[in-house]
TrEMBL record:
Belongs to the short-chain dehydrogenases/reductases (SDR) family. Keywords: Lipid metabolism, NAD, Oxidoreductase, Steroid metabolism. It comes from Actinomadura algeriensis. SUPFAM superfamilies: NAD(P)-binding Rossmann-fold domains. InterPro entries: NAD(P)-bd_dom_sf, SDR_fam. It comes from the Bacteria. PANTHER family: 3-OXOACYL-(ACYL-CARRIER-PROTEIN) REDUCTASE (AFU_ORTHOLOGUE AFUA_6G11210), NAD(P)-BINDING ROSSMANN-FOLD SUPERFAMILY PROTEIN. The keyword Lipid metabolism applies. This is NAD(P)-dependent dehydrogenase (Short-subunit alcohol dehydrogenase family). CDD domains: SDR_c.
Length: 261
């Protein structure tokens, strides 16, 4: 049976955990060869091993998405290993440093760190993807991970601002890239208690969410369930595949109806 991403070469950032790991696994299952990039080499090597165990093809690369040289090297890795670059999924992101922090609770260092990873990282990944796609010819696909926090005024003020910026970059790349066959879209997840994100934001000890967190997260969404990394991976596969050949500039909530509420 043919896969939705047969013959494609993809880079996924933040592939050491959560949405990035689930997407790397599913992209490979659909036939893509995947560069799994993350700031944690150990975790991304685990992801590449899981892909290989499932019969797919992946390489692990340590890359800090804030560092331009790392971003260029991670895209080079796709060309060196797989001959070309078709898909760049700029997914790596960090949460508000203290969950529930209001605007005035953020230090300048908090602001710069959030902007640095969540917005600068997507800027660098998108910029170098576009340069590579144009040099290569034949178009290409950028997918970014935004957030419902960038669509509504709740979910972290500075964090939400970084994601609002990601959404605008996505639209701009879609419009500027269209004459070159370059598409750009974003997935906008709502609360995902099962990824490493909430622990990274200081909630829980990293051993997984407690029942109350899961219940409360799900209760915010009309469909009643928390969002999972796998929900995001399924949306991502569609947007990066040729089935979405005429879909660009879309900010797709993966949110159980939260934004529609
Ligand atoms: N979990 C949620 O509730 C939620 C909701 C909306 C949007 N998101 C977004 O989804 C994306 C994925 O988050 P997740 O829930 O899978 O979180 P996660 O913490 O499980 O995974 C994030 C990964 O990004 C990596 N990373 C962090 N900084 C990096 C850097 N500078 N360079 C490279 N890699 C880096 C981490 O090592 C980690 O492996 C993020 O962009 C996040 O903002 C998450």
């Amino acid at each position: 049976m043919s896969g939705m991403l047969d013959g494609k070469s993809a880079v996924v950032t933040g592939a050491g955990s959560g949405v990035g790991r689930a997407s790397a696994l599913r992209f490979a299952e659909e036939g893509a060869r995947v560069v799994c990039a993350d700031i944690s080499l150990e975790r991304v090597e685990e992801t590449a091993a899981l892909v290989a165990k499932a019969g797919g093809t992946a390489v692990a690369v340590r890359a800090d998405v804030c560092a331009e040289d790392d971003v260029v090297a991670m895209l080079d890795a796709a060309v060196e290993n797989f001959g070309r670059l078709d898909i760049v999924f700029n997914n790596a992101g960090i949460p508000t440093p203290r969950l529930g922090a209001k605007l005035e609770d953020h230090s300048v260092e908090d602001f710069e760190r959030l902007i640095g990873v969540n917005l600068r990282g997507v800027f660098l990944g998108s910029k170098h993807a576009v340069l590579r796609f144009k040099a290569q010819g034949g178009g290409g696909v950028v997918l970014n991970t935004g957030s419902v926090a960038g669509l509504v005024g709740w979910g972290g003020s500075v964090y939400g601002a970084t994601k609002g910026g990601v959404h605008q970059l996505t639209r701009a790349v879609a419009v500027e890239g269209a004459p070159f066959g370059i598409r750009a879209n974003a997935i906008c997840p709502a609360g995902m208690p099962y990824t490493g994100f909430m622990a990274a934001g200081g909630l829980g000890d990293g051993s997984g969410p407690d029942e109350e967190t899961v219940r409360m997260t799900g209760a915010q969404h009309p469909l009643g369930n928390p969002i999972t990394a796998e929900d995001c991976a399924e949306a991502a596969i569609y947007l990066v595949s040729d089935r979405a050949a005429n879909v660009t500039g879309v900010l797709l909530p993966v949110d159980g109806g939260y934004v529609a509420k």
